[in-house]
Specification:
By secondary structure, this protein is mostly helical. The chain has six helices and no strands. Helix 2 packs antiparallel against helix 3. The chain is globular, with a radius of gyration of 21 Å.
């Protein structure tokens, strides 16, 4: 069965999400701070859940690891919420390396898949990731101030474009 798509809601959602993306792109520092604050809140929730879990398990050995996790989440949450710029700079460094390494791994994967028709796309995406990771790292730490906001803005624009395209090509009204 094919899921139903509301044309009006898809168009509305697409335009709204694209607008948020353009706002994020025009205020990249603010968007970066919002991303790091959101990550800080998520880490605080992780800390809280780990602390709650301590009271529901038996055995001191298990308590130790949940306490370690809760402390790690709590410290990271504190840093993300009180020092969003520094947290963004540190996170961008890790993100740059993750993107670069994932691109290198996908190059090897593309060569292993070279006999498949779609292997060229895997290689293309790998090259883009290597370039992107390299650019992030080559300009670090200055990229840490804006890159998360830039990525958020681009992601929202493309996600919105997807919803807009879906809404414009469907026949079902609301």
């Amino acid at each position: 069965m094919i899921p139903q798509v509301s044309r009006g809601w898809s168009i509305f959602l697409g335009l709204a999400v694209m607008l948020l993306g353009f706002i994020a792109l025009s205020h990249q520092l603010l968007a970066t701070a919002m991303v790091t604050s959101f990550m800080g809140i998520l880490l605080l929730l992780g800390c809280s859940f780990s602390l709650i879990k301590i009271f529901t398990i038996h055995g001191w050995g298990n308590h130790f690891w949940y306490i370690v996790v809760a402390i790690a989440y709590g410290v990271a949450s504190f840093v993300f919420l009180t020092q969003p710029v520094q947290a963004a700079i540190a996170f961008t460094f890790i993100l740059g390396w993750a993107i670069l390494i994932s691109g290198i791994v996908r190059v090897f994967m593309a060569f292993k898949l070279r006999h498949h028709h779609g292997a060229g796309w895997v290689l293309f995406s790998a090259i883009v990731s290597i370039i992107l990771g390299g650019l992030i790292l080559s300009q670090w730490p200055s990229t840490g101030i804006y890159i998360l906001g830039l990525f958020l803005g681009v992601e929202l624009i493309f996600a919105g474009a997807g919803w807009l395209g879906l809404g414009l090509t469907t026949n079902r009204e609301f």
